[in-house]
UniProtKB/TrEMBL annotation, chain A:
Topological relation to the membrane, as annotated: Multi-pass membrane protein
GO MF term set: transmembrane transporter activity
NCBIfam families for the chain: HEQRo_perm_3TM
PROSITE patterns: ABC_TM1
Protein name, per record: Polar amino acid transport system permease protein
Organism: Bradyrhizobium shewense
TrEMBL record, chain B:
Protein name, entry field: Polar amino acid transport system substrate-binding protein
UniProt keywords, alphabetically: Signal
InterPro entries membership: Solute-binding_3/MltF_N (IPR001638)
Lineage of the species this protein comes from: Bacteria, Pseudomonadati, Pseudomonadota, Alphaproteobacteria, Hyphomicrobiales
Domain Solute-binding protein family 3/N-terminal: 37-257
PANTHER family: ARGININE-BINDING EXTRACELLULAR PROTEIN ARTP, MEMBRANE-BOUND LYTIC MUREIN TRANSGLYCOSYLASE F
Gene3D superfamilies per UniProt: Periplasmic binding protein-like II
Signal peptide segment: 1-26
Organism expressing this protein natively: Bradyrhizobium shewense
Length: 222, 264
């Protein structure tokens, strides 16, 4: 107890920050892939697929991430599966992110104006061609701001992974604070690090929007 | 529903799952000896039992007890990072072999895990600003008492319904100390070591122990039904209480000796 903030403490916080970044990347890549499948399943022509994916989304969205993490780590161990904290946190975050991104992206796909769907169909494009060439390029533009907004949230939500023994940025701050008792200094540093992670994401989103917004025509239905 | 109650619910559900599953049990002591490694669940954010030194190496009374145990048994030691709430799930699900983490012996916990005999005790008090005139429980009426959430101090104070106490629960000891240092609370319920720490942080607000709260026995926790490991741990504790090593560790971090009735 006591003592002063030194380079070792900062290194420890830096290590925690790296884990936060790593966990966020896993969550976003894993969640992005699964989420894309969910988004497509939500607008599938098959009713059973639509219902199954809707149930998944409701189930995950109605459960706190903390509980998903807890069940992923301790629950799987209880039925005999050995999972490391990284695997459990990665998998839980993937499931969680997928449910939200899937729903965000479904909305974006469906908000592409109806005439675009009809025109694509009128050109005798197959369902895959319609999606890839006409609908998705427009949906991505709409999806950029909410997706990035959600990504920023996920970076911060990774702090919940401390419940499975994961020492990410927030938990490493807690550990340092409990040996120094200097909360204001330590939490200020942590806030700055989180900001340094999230702000570039927002900047990137703005640039992306500007670039893709160029040449955008007015697609309001006639 | 707060995060902690949600976690509690999840833990309870998990407990049911575990109880209903038949354990694929080899003997834990054999497993540990074969692996030449013992995995100990210790919260490294509860000073002065588990914390980090200035070079970010684990230190504290529980840390040294764990190190002594591993050394005596010729095992490699691995600390399983945990928070207060996940100490017990860690051993229930085989993530860790034993818990050494200021685990107070309570009847609720004894339903889920087994305890060894005590290796230390934890004296906790209600401490207040030195200038405050607090002699007994009625003097505390209407004053906020800060505690670390989910600890045995929290439970003990919360159960004193007839005393009309106001309890402010914080995430951990460091936050509780901050609350006391910054004037959010004028009383805290915690160990004597932490109470003294407040004055060190802010000489304008010196706290002292006012009313003894309770003395808890601290024991090593392990999964139910591991009798051989339990016997070996109990033997080790008896030996190291007798030769004074556990007392020396306790004194080094807590500034006081283990109670006389435990040392004789």
């Amino acid at each position: 107890m006591g003592g002063h903030l030194n380079i070792n403490h900062l290194m420890f916080l830096g290590q925690g920050a790296l884990w936060t970044i790593g966990l966020s990347v896993i969550a976003l890549i894993g969640g992005g892939i699964v989420g894309f499948v969910i988004a497509l399943a939500r607008i599938s022509p098959l009713k059973s697929v639509r219902i199954a994916s809707a149930v998944y989304v409701q189930l995950i969205q109605g459960t706190p991430l903390l509980v998903i993490l807890f069940l992923g780590y301790f629950g799987l161990a209880a039925i005999g599966l050995k999972v490391s904290p990284l695997a459990a946190a990665g998998a839980s975050l993937t499931l969680y992110v997928a449910a939200y991104l899937g729903e965000i992206w479904r909305g974006c796909i469906q908000s592409v104006p109806k005439p675009q769907w009809e025109a694509a169909e009128g050109l005798a494009l197959s369902r895959t061609q319609r999606m890839l060439k006409v609908i998705l390029p427009q949906a991505i533009r709409i999806a950029t701001p909410p997706t990035v907004g959600f990504m920023v949230q996920i970076v911060k939500n990774t702090s919940l992974a401390s419940v499975v023994g994961f020492v990410e940025l927030m938990r490493s701050g807690q550990i340092v604070n409990n040996s120094l008792f200097e909360p204001f200094a330590i939490y200020a540093i942590i806030a700055v690090i989180y900001f340094a992670m999230c702000y570039p994401l927002s900047l990137f989103s703005q640039r992306l929007e500007r670039r893709m917004g160029r040449g955008r025509s007015n697609l309001a239905p006639a | 529903m707060t995060n902690k109650t949600l976690l509690g619910t999840a833990a309870a559900l998990l407990g049911l799952v575990i109880l209903s599953a038949t354990p694929a049990s080899a003997d834990l002591l054999d497993d540990v000896m074969k692996a030449k490694k013992i995995r100990i669940s210790t919260d490294l954010a509860i000073p002065p039992s588990g914390m980090m030194d200035s070079s970010m190496k684990p230190t504290g009374s529980d840390v040294e007890v764990a190190q002594l145990l591993a050394k005596d048994w010729g095992l490699e030691l691995e600390f399983i990072q945990t928070t207060g709430a996940t100490r017990i799930p860690n051993v229930l699900t085989g993530k860790a072999d034993i818990i050494i983490s200021t685990l107070s012996v309570t009847p609720e916990r004894a339903k889920v895990i087994d305890f060894t005999k005590r290796y230390a005790t934890l004296q906790s008090d209600v401490g207040c600003l030195k200038s405050m005139n607090v002699k007994d429980w009625p003097d505390l009426k209407g004053k906020s008492i800060g505690v670390s959430r989910g600890t045995t101090q929290d439970t003990t104070l919360s159960n004193m319904k007839d005393k009309e106490l106001t309890i402010a629960r914080y995430d951990d000891d460091a936050t509780e100390v901050t609350a006391a240092v910054s004037g959010q609370v004028d009383c805290v319920g915690t160990s004597a070591t932490i109470i003294n720490q407040i004055g060190v942080k802010n000489p304008a607000r010196i706290f002292e122990s006012k009313i003894p709260l309770a003395t808890f026995d601290l024991a090593i926790g392990l999964k139910k039904g591991e009798q051989r490991l339990m016997d070996k741990l109990n033997g080790w504790i008896t030996e190291n209480v007798k030769n004074g090593k556990l007392n020396a560790i306790y004194k080094k971090f807590h500034g006081v000796e283990l109670p006389p009735d435990m040392r004789s």
